[in-house]
Amino acid sequence: MRKLEQDYDILGNHQASCRMDVDVIPLKIPSDKGHQVHVSGLRWDGTQEDLEQELRKMFASYGPLHRVTARRGGLGCGAEGDNVWYGYVAYFSAFDAEEVLKQSGKMVIGGSRIKLKKTYKSDDFESQALSLHKSQELLIHYFGFNCWTSEIVYLERDGDEERKDSVRYVCLVRVRMPREGLCSEGVGLGEVPCTTQSPQGRGQSVACARRYAFNSAMKAAFGKFVIIKLRNGKVTVEVDTTQTDLQMYDPSWDRTEVEVNDIDHDPEEEDSDEEFALLQDIDDEELGALLDITISKDA
């Protein structure tokens, strides 16, 4: 993994790493450059939703898709512009986009052969994390169902007593991929406004804050996985240890602690003192009766 990271830094961009027959796929929204394919020559009499569904069904056979969009119109549409469309298909893997480009002029949708070409965008793309659902889908595609497990290490309310108008929880989760021997941790924060004093209203705010904290932590943990795909079809996964969580957590959350307090006296002596104080309040007659009862029981 270190060798791959060094090569990735030296070449400076993701497309260069593809030329080395290695495709690094972080669980983030892919840039258009190297991942997006322009589709033209579409003739479609149906709705935009149906066309996008048809495009997704056809192009998904080449690899997992991030986005499929279709638009009406295009160059040279003329009077037939009502049924002339164009579209964009974005893949997570640049290898998949390269492979599908070889099918330009061979695919047929709606009775027309479509043309495919690369799209070029500016290099100022700012990558963003995928949604939790998309991240899980991508891992399942490459590594199968039940490829990961998760556990909550810490989920507690923030101890800031000055926050009276909101409820805030902090969560730490641990996601494991047992077959690969990998573990990724994520920290999440969930804060929900709470202006009501009713038990029901505050209970709902607490439940929402806990859920938001958990989902945020899960998203952070999954976002650290990096899929590595070779051109020969082999796939592996690593954890990006360079990523840091937005909310730092206390390492003590990860272990059970027992608090021990020092005391300056013997507890047995304390009990004896209490018993002696009670005996001082008993007169001679009561003490004699108590002793008689004790002796009779011993007999």
Automatic annotation (TrEMBL):
Assigned keywords, A-Z: RNA-binding
Record-given protein name: RRM domain-containing protein
Record-linked SUPFAM superfamilies: dsRNA-binding domain-like (SSF54768), RNA-binding domain, RBD (SSF54928)
Gene3D superfamilies noted in UniProt: DNA repair protein Rad52/59/22
Keyword RNA-binding tagged: yes
RRM domain residues: 35-121
The keyword RNA-binding is annotated on this UniProt entry: yes
GO cellular component terms, A-Z: nucleolus
Protein origin, superkingdom: Eukaryota
Molecular function via GO: RNA binding
Pfam families reported for this sequence: DSRM_RDM1 (PF25517)
The organism of origin for this protein: Scylla olivacea
Database matches in InterPro entries: DSRM_RDM1 (IPR057652), Rad52_Rad59_Rad22_sf (IPR042525), RBD_domain_sf (IPR035979), RDM1 (IPR040224), RRM_dom (IPR000504)
Example GO BP: double-strand break repair
